Amino acid sequence: MPQEIKHHLTDALLMGYSAGTLPEAFNIVVASHVSLCDECRARLAEFDTVGGEIVAMGETAEMGADSLAQTLAAIAEGPAEDDQQVAPATDGPSVLPCPIRDYVGGDVEAVRWRKIGGGVRQAILSTSKNATARLLYIPAGCAVPDHGHAGTELTLVLQGAFRDETDRFGAGDIEVANEDLDHQPVAEDGEDCICLAATDAPLKFSSMIPKLAQPFLRI
Amino acid sequence: MLTETIPFANADADRREALYAGASAKYSSGARIKVAQSGPKDRMAWVTHVEAIRDRKDQAAFAELFGHFAPRVKAFLMKSGASPDLAEECTQEVMATLWRKAHMFDPAKASVSTWIFTVARNRKIDILRKERRPEPEDLPWGPEAEPEQEDVLALQQESKKLGKAIADLPEKQKDLILKAYYGELSHSEIAEQTGLPLGTIKSRIRLALDRLRRQMK
Questions:
Q1: Contact B136 A99 (CB under 8 A)
Q2: I want to staple A161 with a disulfide (CB 3.0 to 4.6 A). Which of A3, A130, A188, B55 is the partner?
Q3: pLDDT band for position B7 (cuts 50, 70, 90)
Q4: For A109, how many CA atoms within 13 A lie in the half-sphere containing its CB?
Q5: Is residue B2 part of a domain?
Q6: Superfamily of the domain at A1-57+96-219
Q7: Digit-coded pLDDT (tens) for A79-108
Q8: Is residue B5 one of the residues assigned to a domain?
Q9: Is residue B3 part of a domain?
Q10: Max alpha carbon distance in chain B (Å)?
Q11: CA A175 to chain CA mean position, Å
C-alpha cells in the first residue's frame, strides 16, 4: 500500500460507478482507486446499498408465466457451481492494480508505450469510445504538456508523484479536473511517475505543437 | 429485531403492496410451479433463504426469493432502458446467478437486496452496453471465516435504516436518487445536482461503514 491517500473519489463518481452509468474508461479509474483505497471501498459499499434499497422498494414488473420453471431449468443445465474468481492478487508487489492489469494483459512491463514528446510516453487502453483511458509515463522532473479540458479528466497516480497548480498527488491519489482547470502536471524529482488518465472529451492543449499532433496521437 | 418488515415509504406502502400482490397474482396464475404469494418480510429471513440455497439447494427458498425479487429486478432493468423481453431474460439470468453464487454471498457485508442489485447492474452493463465492467481487486483477507452473527444482524439493520431514510425523503430528492440509479443522470449531471441528499444517506450508514473499515484493517 502506498503512502496515505489524500485525494479521493467524488460522491458523483462513486454513485455513477455504483449505478453503472459511467463510461468504461472512468470505471477502470474508479475500480483501480477503490482497489488501493479502503475508505473509498467503504463509501462504494454505501452507494451499492442505496442501489439495493431502490430495487427493494421499487415497483414490480410481471414476470413471464414460465419464468421460474425456465430459470430452474437453466440452473439444472448450467455448471454446478460458478466459482469464477477475480484474478488473484499477484505474488509480488505490482505497480498496476488488477483492473488495469486486466486491460494491459500484465503488469507495467507488459505495457506497450508510445512516445508522445518531451520524454512522456502513453499507452491507450481499449475501451468503449465515449471516453478514453490511457497510461502515462512521465520521467521524474518532466512535465505533461499544459492542457485544459472540455469535459472531465480523472488522473490516478500509480507510481511516483506529480504536482500541478492545485496540489501534490502521490501514489493512490486521484485528481478530478473539469473545464475550469487549466493545469500543467509536473512529475516530482526522484521516481518516474506512472498515471492512469481518463477523459470524456479531447484535451485542449495550450501550445501549437501538441495541438497539431493531437489527431495522430489520440491524446 | 427479527420481525421487522422491509421498509416502504409509509404513504406509498399500501399502493406498493397492492401493486406487488396484483403482479404476483397474475404471475402465479399461469406458472407451472407454484410461487409463494407472500415471502418473508424480514431481511434476516432472506439471508436464511440464500443460505438454504447454498447449503441444501433448497428450491422452495429459491422460489420465494424469485417471487419477491424477480419482478423488482425486471422493473429496475426496464426503468434502465431494457425492453420487457430483454429485462425478462436478463432477470432470469440474474436469479440463476444468485443460485450459482450463493456461496459467495456475505451477509456481514451486504443485504440480499444489495447483492441482487450489484448482480443486476453488472448484467445490465454487459447486456445493454456490451462493455466490460472493471471490478476492484478483492481484498487479500485470506479464506473467509463464517461471518459473526452479530455483524450480520448489524449490517442488515443498517441497510434497512438506509432504505427507510430514502423512502422518507421528500419526493423531489427521492426522484433524483432514483434517476441516478435508473441511468437518467450522467456523471456530470450528478456532480451538478445540489439537491442530492447525500448527507442523509451518509449519516444513516455510518455504522456499517465503520464496521467495514474495521474489517479491512
A1: yes
A2: A188
A3: very low
A4: 1
A5: no
A6: Jelly Rolls (2.60.120.10)
A7: 765 555 555 555 567 899 999 999 999 999
A8: no
A9: no
A10: 51
A11: 11
The number of beta carbons lying within 10 Å of the beta carbon of residue A69 is 13
Residues of A in contact with B114 (CB under 8 A): 48-49, 51-53
Q: What is the CATH number of the domain that holds B131?
A: 1.10.1740.10
Q: B114 in a domain, yes or no? A: yes
CB contact under 8 A, B159 and A35: no
Q: Looking at chain B from residue 122 to 181, which residues have their Cβ under 8 Å from any Cβ of chain A? A: 122, 124-125, 129, 131-140, 158-159, 162-163, 166-167, 177-178, 180-181
Beta bridge partners of A131: none
List the single residue in B62, B113, B186 with the smallest CB-CB distance to A56.
B113
- B98, B78, B193, A26 alpha-carbon torsion, rounded to 10°: 60
Q: List pLDDT tens digits, range A168-200.
A: 999 999 999 988 887 888 999 999 999 999 998
Q: ipTM of the predicted structure? A: 0.85
| Contacts B13 to A, Cβ<8 Å | none
| pLDDT given at position B60 | 96
- Average pLDDT over every residue of A12-34: 95
Q: Can you give the residue ranges of every domain in chain A?
A: 1-57+96-219
* Region for residue B59 given its phi and psi (left: phi exceeds 0; alpha: psi -120 to 50; beta: otherwise): alpha
Q: Is residue B3 classed exposed, middle or buried when 0-12, 13-18 and 19+ CB atoms within 10 A define those classes?
A: exposed
Mean residue pLDDT of chain A comes to 86
Give the nearest partner residue to B100 out of A49, A54, A82, using CB atoms: A82
Closest by Cα among A142, A191, A192, A195 to A173: A195
Answer with the residue of higher pLDDT: B19 or A145.
Answer: A145
Domain extent, residue B47, equals: 10-216
